[in-house]
Amino acid sequence: MTDTSAVLALAVLLAAGGFVAGVGARLLLIRLRRGARIPPPWCELAVACGWAAAGFAVGVGAVPGRWLPVLLGLGWLAVAAGAVDLRHHRLPDALTLPALPLALLLLAPLGWEAVLRGVVGAGVAVAAHAAVHLAAPTALGAGDVKLAAPVGAVLSAASWEALALAGLLAALLSGAAAAVVLVARGRGGAVPHGPSMLLAGLLVTAACARGP
After folding, report:
1. Contact 146/140 with Cβ under 8 angstroms?
2. Are 49 and 100 contacting, i.e. CB atoms less than 8 angstroms apart?
3. Which residue ranges in the chain fall short of pLDDT 70?
4. Domain boundaries, the chain
5. Burial group, residue 70, by CB count within 10 angstroms (0-12, 13-18, 19+)
6. 211: left (phi > 0), else alpha (psi -120 to 50), else beta?
7. Phi-psi region of 110 (alpha: psi -120 to 50; beta: other; left: phi over 0)
């Protein structure tokens, strides 16, 4: 039987850590070469909620404990990169490029097979997104292609099915967001795809993560 108090304690502890990490994310975004100012406390609250949810999922046994660092790292990236994409419709290289080696580093405790799948999955994800970018650059930007590498690495480490499922879910989320914009404004508008990729990556990874 799950110890409820231990689960809640883990969630609260991670929420506190997430709040601090959110402060770090907001301050980092300000200091980027093309800085992005995100008003407090959005980054802080978003990371805190995401980390608390990851801790709760691990605490109740829905997600294997070894995946917790991966989910925390992906959650932080989702908030930092997603905030910039929503506010400025761009994904900074300073976030997307270091994210791949960091993702592989976080996957290392899961074993060499997970890392190998991560490397291959990153390549597959980048190739698929690059093809869409070349065919429809206004629908999928170069930043999305770079972001596909770390997200694809984490997803493929969970399972190959997760990589395909997250791609489909991200497309559905972006389509739904575009529909909302159309209804709200009475006309279409550019909808950043990065937040959908990141949210889909988090949800599918948590659902498909495996191992003790």
Report:
1. no
2. no
3. 1-2, 188, 211-212
4. 4-208
5. buried
6. left
7. alpha
What pLDDT score was predicted for residue 3? Answer: 87
Q: What is the pLDDT of residue 211?
A: 66
Amino acid at 23: V
Read off the amino acid at residue 70: V
Which tens digits make up the pLDDT trace of 94-148?
Answer: 999 999 999 999 999 999 999 999 999 999 999 999 999 999 988 899 999 999 9
Three-class DSSP labels, the chain:
CCCHHHHHHHHHHHHHHHHHHHHHHHHHHHHCCCCCCCCCCHHHHHHHHHHHHHHHHHHCCCCCHHHHHHHHHHHHHHHHHHHHHHHHCCCCHHHHHHHHHHHHHHHHHHCHHHHHHHHHHHHHHHHHHHHHHHHCCCCCCHHHHHHHHHHHHHHHHHCHHHHHHHHHHHHHHHHHHHHHHHHHHCCCCCCCCHHHHHHHHHHHHHHHCCCC
Predicted model pTM: 0.95
- Predicted pLDDT of residue 185: 81
Q: Quick one: residue 55, left, alpha or beta (phi over 0 = left, psi -120 to 50 = alpha)?
A: alpha
Give pLDDT, residue 210: 80
Calculate the CA 180 to chain-centre distance: 22
Residue type, 102: L
Residue 1's pLDDT is what?
Answer: 41
